[in-house]
Each structure stands twice: as C-alpha cells, then as structure tokens.
C-alpha cells in the first residue's frame, strides 16, 4: 500500500514532539521580551507599562544573546517572541537576528502598529515561521476602543497587508469576546482577504496581578452555547477519553516561558517560578527545578475534583487558568468548566450524548438558569 507523502512530515514532527514530551527535552520556548506596549487593551492579561518607560531589570541585549545560546545548548527549536509589544524594544531586531543565526524557528506576536514598509522588510529578512497579529473586530471603532489606541485597527490591517506583500506567513488572531463573537465569520473572511490564517479563541483571563476586569469581556454561558452550536462537531468529542494517567495540559513537558526579567515559568499562565536566568543557568533550571516533576506527575487521576468529574472527557482544563482565576493549579479551572458544560449542552442537542447525561455537582448552579435554545 502506498504512503501519503503529504502526511509524512506531519507524522514525523508529531513523533518528534511526543519523544520530547516523554524525555523532558526542551523543544519550544515562549519569551516575553518586554511588558512595555503602545496599546492599552482592556482584556490583556499582562500588567502593561508605557512604551517609552525605562524598566529596571529588563534583560539587556547581551543578556538576551546569552539566553539564546542557552536555549540552543539545550536543543530548543521553536522560539515565540511576544510582549507587551516586541517592536518597542530598540534592540528587537538584534535579538531576533541572533536567534535566527542560531537556527531557531521564530514566531512573532505583535500588534502591528510599528510595522511600516521598512520594518516589514526587516521582518521578512528574518524569515519567521509566522507573524501573528490580533484583530478584535471588523469595525475599526470597536477595535480601537478595545486597544485604547486610535487608528490601531488601520495599522494592524496595514501590517498584515505589508507582510503578505513580502511573502511572510501571517495569522490573524481573534479573541472572541462579548463585543465581537457574532463577527466571527466576517473576521474570517477579512483574514482570507488579507491572505492570513485565521485563529480564534474564547480564552479571556484575569491579569497577572489578579485584576479581574478583563473577565467583563468573556463570553457568557449562553453565548458559548450559541457559538458551539455553530462550530462544535459532537461526533469528534463523544469518543474522546482522558485516561487517569492522561493530561489535558502538557505544560512543562517540553516547553517553558521566560519573562522580561529572566524568570522561568512552566507557561505564561502558570507563574510558578522555576528560577531566574540572571542567577542560575537555564540547564540547571530545566534539569533540576522541582516544579517540572510536580507538573509531569499532574495527571487527571491525581486531581482531587477533576478525576471524578463527569465532563472530564469534554474538558480542556488549563493548569494556569486554574491557578490565576481559582487559586489552585490542581483544582478545576472554572472557565474550562463552563466551556465543558456548554459542550455537553450542545452535544445533547446534537444527539451524541443522552439528554440525562450527568451535570457535575460543582456546575449545577451554572446550568440551572439555562433553559434551552437562545
């Protein structure tokens, strides 16, 4: 029987990823280069600083070169650079070019405001895997209201266009919120018109300092149900099984996060420090910090509530969300619980789950006010 050649690279990569997860080999890194930003997005999880602020303790250019060397020494392949806004760092292109010279695959998160033709040329010269820009509405006014920056929609769309003209792979990222969730199809068309991939997410989290105001943007339960009626393929979920030794969150297995000050975390949501790169080599942090073993052992069967939850197979529980919103990274993540309950509702409507499929005790109050189709 012949082999589908188009599937071979994907299969090989999946095999590589699986191997790094099993052996705790570093593969991917999310590095927040700065918390300075030229926008003030009302839903952002970062404690943003003004773009022209001098920030004591932010890693210097030389520090960043050293960190890149340490990542390469550990065998990392994928490097995501984000902020804040990466382009407010005057040394951004020095850092990014050095990372590329060390053969790291780059993904860049930017709001696009500072991307003019010259900057687009410099980005294209880096040959990044992708540049990802968030767009919050098809309405410039609504987008600008969310970002707190006039003309930010115009500049974001212009950046996507400039990068497309230079052959750079782009992605339009859309956090679905109460303000924009009904625009999903129109935003997908806009992305297609701009030659960009389209990705949406329903995840809106508290700020890292505990501020809950971003949650005002989060979809209501009824809105989640209505969205899932449009997008959920119940047949693909009904046979999903999370075994007791399985996980819904793979943080810490082959990846880590670094903040602008050199602190190392399992991910940008779970701010449990593994160490600091200014005082300890990355290899030592990656190989010796106790938190990695804690996370690796965090299977569903060891979670006090989730292990017996009737909706564990419909849930995409995130350890970081459980910590930042609910205060316990081994407990339920209430945001993911809501989504699992909404999936259950739609799967019942689709007939792939029985009407009496149980609702977990800790979610009954949420389900009670819901009385069927909106």
Describe the 3D structure:
The protein is α/β, with parallel strands linked by helices. Helix content is 37%, strand content 12%. It contains 14 helices and eleven strands. The strands form two sheets. A nine-stranded mixed sheet has the order 8-7-6-5-4-1-9-10-11, with helices on one face. Strands 2-3 form a two-stranded parallel ribbon. Helix 7 (184-193) links the parallel strand 7 and strand 8. The chain is globular and about 60 Å long.
Describe what is shown at a glance.
With 374 residues, the chain is of the alpha/beta class. It has helices at 8-23, 61-73, 92-101, 117-126, 140-147, 152-165, 184-193, 221-231, 234-238, 282-288, 290-296, 319-326, 334-350, 364-367, and strands spanning 28-32, 36-37, 49-50, 78-82, 105-109, 130-134, 170-175, 197-201, 255-258, 263-265, 275-276. The longest helix is centred in the C-terminal third of the chain and has 17 residues, at 334-350.
Strand order of the largest sheet: 8-7-6-5-4-1-9-10-11
What is the total tally of β strands?
Answer: 11
The residue fraction in helices comes out at 25-40%
Rg, Å, rounded: 21 Å
The tally of helices reads 14
Low-confidence stretches: none
End-to-end CA span: 50 Å
Beta-strand residue fraction: 5-15%
- Structural class based on helices, strands and sheet pairing: alpha/beta
Q: What is the N-to-C succession of helices and strands?
A: HEEEHEHEHEHHEHEHHEEEHHHHH
Overall residue-averaged pLDDT value? 93
Shape: globular
Q: Profile the largest sheet.
A: 9 strands, mixed
């Amino acid at each position: 029987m012949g082999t589908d050649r188009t599937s071979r690279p994907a299969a090989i990569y999946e095999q590589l990823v699986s191997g790094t997860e099993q052996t705790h080999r570093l593969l991917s890194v999310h590095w927040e280069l700065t918390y300075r930003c030229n926008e003030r997005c009302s839903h952002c999880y970062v404690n943003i600083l003004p773009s022209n602020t001098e920030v004591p303790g932010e890693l210097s250019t030389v520090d960043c070169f050293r960190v890149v060397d340490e990542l390469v020494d550990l065998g990392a392949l994928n490097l995501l650079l984000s902020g804040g806004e990466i382009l407010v760092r005057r040394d951004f292109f020095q850092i990014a070019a050095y990372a590329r010279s060390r053969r790291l695959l780059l993904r860049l998160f930017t709001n696009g405001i500072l991307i003019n033709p010259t900057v687009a040329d410099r980005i294209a010269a880096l040959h990044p895997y992708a540049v990802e820009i968030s767009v919050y509405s098809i309405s410039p006014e609504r987008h600008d209201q969310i970002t707190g920056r006039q003309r930010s929609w115009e500049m974001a769309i212009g950046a996507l266009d400039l990068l497309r003209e230079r052959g750079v792979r782009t992605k339009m990222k859309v956090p679905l919120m109460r303000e924009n969730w009904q625009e999903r199809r129109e935003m997908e068309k806009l992305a297609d018109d701009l030659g960009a991939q389209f990705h949406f997410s329903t995840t809106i989290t508290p700020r890292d300092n505990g501020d809950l105001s971003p949650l005002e943007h989060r979809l209501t339960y009824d809105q989640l149900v209505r969205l899932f009626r449009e997008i959920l393929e119940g047949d693909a979920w009904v046979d999903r099984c999370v075994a007791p030794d399985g996980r819904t969150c793979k943080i810490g297995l082959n990846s880590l996060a670094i903040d602008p000050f050199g602190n190392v975390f399992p991910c940008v949501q779970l701010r449990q420090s593994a160490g600091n790169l200014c005082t300890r080599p990355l290899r030592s942090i990656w190989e010796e910090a106790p938190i990695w073993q804690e996370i690796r052992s965090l299977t569903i069967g060891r979670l006090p509530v989730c292990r017996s939850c009737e909706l564990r197979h419909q849930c995409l529980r995130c350890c970081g969300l459980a910590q930042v919103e609910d205060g316990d990274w081994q407990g339920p993540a209430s945001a993911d619980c809501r989504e699992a309950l909404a999936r259950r509702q739609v799967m019942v409507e689709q007939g792939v789950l029985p009407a009496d499929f149980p609702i977990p005790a800790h979610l009954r109050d949420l389900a009670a006010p819901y009385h069927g189709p909106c």
